[in-house]
Design goal:
Strand content: 25-35%
Catalytic activity: [protein]-L-isoaspartate + S-adenosyl-L-methionine = [protein]-L-isoaspartate alpha-methyl ester + S-adenosyl-L-homocysteine
CATH class: Alpha Beta
Number of helices: 6
Bound molecules: S-adenosyl-L-homocysteine
Subcellular location: Cytoplasm
Enzyme class: transferase
CATH architecture: 3-Layer(aba) Sandwich
Number of domains: 1
Distance between the termini: 38 Å
Shape: globular
Organism: Candidatus Nitrosarchaeum limnium BG20
Strand order of the largest sheet: 5-4-3-6-7-8-9
Structural class: alpha/beta
Largest sheet: 7 strands, mixed
GO biological process, one term: methylation
């Protein structure tokens, strides 16, 4: 998959903007973003904004995340080839596709609560011939026990607290990243060890759409 020439310059510029503001330091993640054309994941009416470093409204009042934030989350998640990843909140499928690029022969499972968005993400991934990512329509607060444990888990919506069900589905030595808290949220990176969960990173100042699930009173 290649970004066509019309968008190449805009993509180069976006990469430059992200780097200037201190994002996107990892070559592997840069390559993944370069090979995952964002204009294929935004509604046609907003395609001109595809390479702005900003979130864009998709449908159901949800957004495709801001590129610099996607790059930071992807870098912190430290994805390796062959891994099995769980994503909660597929949205447009852009972050899903970036993860799919990085896992190579591995697999990404992405759960989306809005069926229209699950369809949108599926369509976008299919369009690019991505076969190592599967979108599941449903409530991600329960995770995806059928395929657990996961080497990496990413939540792309703001949760008050990381659901225990997701921590249970993380492998030992696995990493989980999520925006946590009220408004704004902190980006939190957790690691599961044989003796419990430890916090690796915590950075304030992020704003995400809310994580809404059956168990949302508890999370
Ligand atoms: N990463 C996506 C953007 C995600 S926006 C992209 O780049 O396009 C957050 C998404 O999380 C929304 O689509 C929202 O519907 C979804 N979401 C919120 N709570 C959820 C839940 N409990 N289970 C599954 N998806 C959820």
């Amino acid at each position: 998959m290649k970004t066509n020439e019309n968008y190449q310059q805009k993509l180069d510029n976006l990469i430059l903007v992200m780097k200037k503001s201190g994002f996107l330091n990892d070559k592997k993640v840069e390559l993944a973003i370069r090979n995952t054309p964002r204009h294929e994941f935004v509604p046609i009416t907003l395609i001109k904004k595809a390479y702005d470093d900003s979130p864009i409204l998709i449908m159901k009042n949800q957004t495709i995340s801001q590129p610099s934030v996607v790059s930071r989350m992807t870098e912190w998640l430290d994805v390796e080839e062959g891994q099995k990843i769980l994503e909660i909140g597929s949205g447009s499928g852009w972050q899903t596709a970036i993860l799919a690029y990085l896992v190579g022969c591995g697999m990404v499972y992405s759960v989306e609560r809005h069926s229209e968005l699950a369809e949108f993400a599926k369509k976008n991934l299919d369009k690019l011939g991505i076969t190592n990512a599967k979108v599941i329509s449903g409530d991600g607060s329960f995770g995806f026990p059928e395929e657990s444990p996961f080497d990496r888990i990413i939540i792309t919506a703001a949760c008050k607290k990381v659901p225990d069900s997701l921590l249970e589905q993380l492998s030992i030595n696995g990493l989980l990243i999520a925006p946590v808290g009220g408004y704004p949220q902190s980006m939190v990176l957790l690691k599961k060890t044989s003796t419990g969960i430890i916090e690796i990173k915590n950075q304030p100042g992020y704003v995400f759409v809310p994580f809404l699930g059956k168990t949302s009173e508890d999370i």
